[in-house]
Amino acid sequence: MAVANNDLEKVIIQSVMEELAKKGLLSQKGKDHMMSAAMMDMPFVPNPQSEEMVTFPPQEEMQIDNPFNADAVRAMKKLTPARIGIGRAGTRPKTMSLLRFLADHAVAQDAVFLDVSDEFLQRMNLMAVQSSAGSKDEFLQRPELGRRLSEEAARKIAEKCEKNVQVQILIVDGLSSSAIEANIPDLLPALMQGLKSSGIKVGAPFFIKNGRVWVQDHVASIVNCDVVISLIGERPGLGTAESLSAYMIYRPDENTVEADRTVISNIHKGGIPPAEAGAHLTDVIKQILSAKASGVKLNQQK
Amino acid sequence: MILKAKVYNKIFAFQSLKEVMSKANEEKSGDELVGIAAKSASERVAAKLVLSNLTLEDIYNNPVIPYEEDEVTRAIYDGLNLRIYQEIKSWTVGYLREYILDHKTTGENLLHISRGLTSEMIAAVAKLMSTMDLVCGSKKIRVQSHCNTTLGIPGTLAFRCQPNHPTDSVEGMLASLKEGLAYGSGDAVIGINPVEDNVETVSRLLDTVKNFMVKWEIPTQNCVLAHVTTQMKAIEKGAPVDLVFQSIAGTQKANDAFGVSSAILDEAFALAQRKGSATGPNLMYFETGQGSEVSLDAHLGVDMMTLEARTYGFARGYRPFMTNNVSGFIGPETIYSGREVIRADLEDLFMGKLHGLPMGIAPCYTNHMKADQNDQEMGTLLCAMAGSNFFMGVPGGDDVMLSYQDTSYHDDASTREILGLRPLPEFEQWLEKMGILENGKLTERAGDPSIFDK
Fold this sequence. Notes:
The complex is a heterodimer of chains A (302) and B (454).
Chain A: H1 2-22, H2 28-41, H3 70-79, H4 95-113, H5 118-123, E1 127-130, H6 136-141, H7 151-160, E2 167-172, H8 177-197, E3 206-209, H9 215-223, E4 227-233, E5 244-250, E6 262-267, H10 274-291, H11 295-301
Parallel strand pairs in A: 1-3, 2-3, 2-4
Antiparallel strand pairs in A: 4-5, 5-6
Helix pairs in contact in A: 1-2, 8-10
Chain B: E1 4-7, E2 10-13, H1 17-23, H2 29-34, H3 41-53, H4 56-61, H5 71-78, H6 82-88, H7 93-101, H8 107-114, H9 119-127, H10 131-140, E3 145-146, E4 150-151, E5 158-161, H11 170-182, E6 189-192, H12 199-215, E7 222-224, H13 228-236, E8 244-247, H14 252-258, H15 262-275, E9 284-288, H16 292-295, H17 304-315, E10 322-325, H18 338-354, E11 359-361, H19 373-385, E12 390-393, E13 398-399, E14 404-405, H20 409-419, H21 425-433, E15 437-438, E16 441-442
Parallel strand pairs in B: 5-6, 5-12, 6-7, 8-9, 9-10, 10-11
Antiparallel strand pairs in B: 1-2, 3-4, 13-14, 15-16
Helix pairs in contact in B: 1-3, 5-17, 7-9, 9-17, 9-18, 10-18, 12-13, 13-15, 17-18, 18-19
């Protein structure tokens, strides 16, 4: 019991010192002292209720020790999203720069390699089918497989989807599942609402896993719609992993080329915000329907 | 020509030299995608065994793409020194590997036989070489070139400072340039990839960099990596172009897709000589990468590595100042993993050097590959040990315009210090004058872009 009491005492001392530190009443030296006291013989007591956590300093923070002109460095950092003014440890990056880079790459890789969750698809009430690419590895290494539906998917679409609609919306993971989960909850309702209030007949949107842009041609050949629009995850950069593109095409066939598609890209909260994109895409689809053409052919008619 | 081999109890028969060449490759996703990769580990070794026994003459007589059909093949064959070829044509590929690695064989010897080797012969021998073989072979060969300064001097390692900006902002670009120079990056070239490929943007960036170079007396070269035809128009309008850049590939069909041909490159080279701003004589900067022909659907059934060698065969006639390889940039359908990209980088460095090219490597990766920063740093160190003339320098390793990761300014300084390599001499003097470098090491002052804001 004596040991437990001793521990309790130390925990109390530690929390008091933490409070003091938060209020700035403790010097850096005091903090070091607290750390070393804690490390010496006190067992770490995790507190899951605590709101405290480790996180990155703001990106715009200037990280150079003793710069010649700190204001100039801060001004430079405002001029570019590039990783400058980040300082160094010897010739190597500082710990926070290294960890931030790893974090940005991790988020990008997770966007590419993780699937859109089943829970998300259920919540959005989206039927899910798959391309001919059976795995992410296959999807990334064999582009042609992502351009065709699996046989099962083609059958399911033929069975369940409404035919001869004006617009069929597809949600396609592409190279970023994060882009789907981040944008679709705002984008899809706005787009559906926009199209319906314009009196346009829309089929029930559904989700395609491991899909590329061209898979929309295969879908259009089954549902026989006028316009097929794919909301598809873009290849993530380190800056954002949540960017989404919309590819639209009017009645694709075997002679379709890339230039026949109309593309709106950079849909994410730092680019075209998803709800705004819904309204914009509605306008573009209306133009495509009235021109009976998309891509370069649509632009030529303008 | 024997195209059959027995590996223990299994016999493998191949139909053509082209098939042997593709199946002898180490695993890469692009060869799998095209459907020309070995189907098993044993078949891969069988192909290497067949290849080791073929003579250089066998390869000469069987170009993977016919002479009549492809101007890259024509450039390779027309540029060959027939006297040297005659002397070595009876060598087997296996013997060539041992000749390259032999202690008695010097870099000078290799540059001599280089003139009698076609690109396919160079690719063939590299297919028999392991990682350390490639490093040993590469390290022997030093190729120097001169534009405003001399690249490739033994004991030096140079860097392209790559201050790209997502909207071509001149001020944003300058901020990244200052940061790079403050780390000692930029002696190979200050090279910018523009977003907008037009004469106005290209000229504006060229003028800005040139003025900065003049103001701060920086001994280096400048370049804006737009399409060659855009740069030519900019030169005609008076823009200061030290180096003319172009991406090239290993088939005429792929070069067509890039919008280039030997006629256009001839014209660009002549224009750079007549109206360019550099001393020369080396005035071209090429970029290449395994897999570009696959991504353009212009591979004609030839494997990526052989096509990359052919690209070097096409390049060498233009006596470039620098040739940079970006195999990791193309994507996972051609190069999937960190392991594949490191292998490709070493192959490309070796094959380029054996072509007599001043090679640099961008051991880079994209976010949809199975590669990460650790792979990139391993690739960089290996290529530096193998004597790469230069690497890229990107702020924090993250190119915010091209959306891929490449060697950072920090990596540039680190690689020099780890291996005891120095910047190009004139540039080192400049760095010392600026107080950025002292005895080959960064000073306290280094890494601070505001030293240019007096």
